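Fold Annotation — chain and its backbone

Fields — amino acid sequence, structure tokens

___
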Amino acid sequence: MSTVAAVKTAARAFDLRPLPGGLGAEICGLVVSAVDDATFPAIYAAFLAHQLLLFRDQDLPPGDQVAFARRFGEVQVHVMNQYHASTHPELYTLSNVGPDGRPTGKHPDKGTMAWHTDGSWQRRTTKCTMLYAEVIPSRGGGTAFADMYSAYETLSPDEQRHLETLRAIHNLDFSRTRRHGEDPMTEAQRKAVPPVDHPVVRVHPETGRKTIYLGDHAESIVGMGYDEGRRLIEDLNQRIVGLCRLYIHSWRPRDLMLWDNRCLLHKAGSYDTATEPRIIRRCTVLGEAA
């Protein structure tokens, strides 16, 4: 982090420090719960420019997290209502801690351990996700991020043109059953989010840049045989994370991380769910139809 850029606004300034590897930036000198209308435009500009923002050492009660998310847009109430926080249904709680305060040995959502983008399984996709770390294991449990701008740009022109003609069907029931089948969706949940199709190459609605839009929720390719489409998706999902810029975040308690779902994939790392507690609060902001 050799360079520190001071970002000025009408009311205040904050420091913007690129994260190792060049993907994402840390915003320093800012209290998220105190962000005002004068400061937020500079934060949003940094979000679009860097795709991933980290805020360390934040005291962020659940209501303040939801309020900050609302600055970015309409907040999602996730269809998987078993994860809702009791007083804030906008929050999706990922915890392996039982009622007795001890680790249960069960991973709350093993689907988070595969590369994916949040909300690609709905027609109106999501703009951004923010995670707040309440309790963090002593080892493991990090989160990795993959830049889909650079993945697209690394492909050959012929492959870019081919992929731009394709649409993938994204299906939460498919990915949930595949990765966390011991706790399947209910019939009501499945009916609420039927499969939807999105372009494999998406034009970011705000930056205008092209990005690969796939991940683990993508099940098949429109107009292609199921097995052939599965092979294409599996191959491409594997290749793109090897082609692009990556950042792996090692969490600290009171970290807040937010990122752009329209141009990043992410996945959670493993940890010892039997002995190590991990509690993360997630809040996701709705965006546009792809």
In short: Residues 226-243 form the longest helix (18 residues).
